[in-house]
């Protein structure tokens, strides 16, 4: 059996705006402490590989984990965040604007829809699913930490896990900074362990309050 801990990166230096593939922002001071706390948490789980997207916020999260576990830090560039087009750098909102409209239309089955310059659900899935499956194949039988981005994590899980689909976008829940979802591949079948868990030592840094603002379009 292959185990993958699909993990969102730590808090960014600008957590209240939309960050897509267009914005290679780093981590905040809190984000760096979150990454260090996550590294300590992952160490006793004895991962056999640590992989991230090439974006700075992902590599800055994965690097301490790899170092703590005595592993090389590997990169899968196609796991980069969603391209968000004109949303890049705009103040985050879940109440109005292109992102809540996008979620509603995806959940209604319009998975080819995107706002100006942004990737649709179909485009994201077409890019990240093969990349994720390449990682799983390269590390078959292993225990792999994969550090990616909020929307990337959600698209992957809604595409892979039985019983879930894009219509469940809201019901599936928020992909918080450094939330970890345990996925298992046995043969050709994916199954879930615990989903969207923020490791306790990370959670303690903010007294259990999630960091960032809402569920970011990208992050």
Strand and helix layout:
Layout (H helix, E strand, L loop, with lengths): L1 E7 L20 H14 L6 E4 L3 H14 L3 E3 L22 H10 L13 H18 L4 E6 L1 H11 L8 H4 L7 E7 L2 E4 L7 H4 L16
Parallel strand pairs: 1-4, 2-3, 2-4
Antiparallel strand pairs: 1-5, 5-6
Question: Can you offer a commentary on this structure?
Answer:
The chain has a single domain, classed as Phosphoglycerate mutase-like (Rossmann fold, 3-Layer(aba) Sandwich). Helix 1 packs parallel to helix 2 and helix 4 packs across helix 5. The two termini are 30 Å apart. 40% of the residues are buried. The protein is of the alpha/beta class. A hairpin with a 2-residue loop joins strand 5 and strand 6.
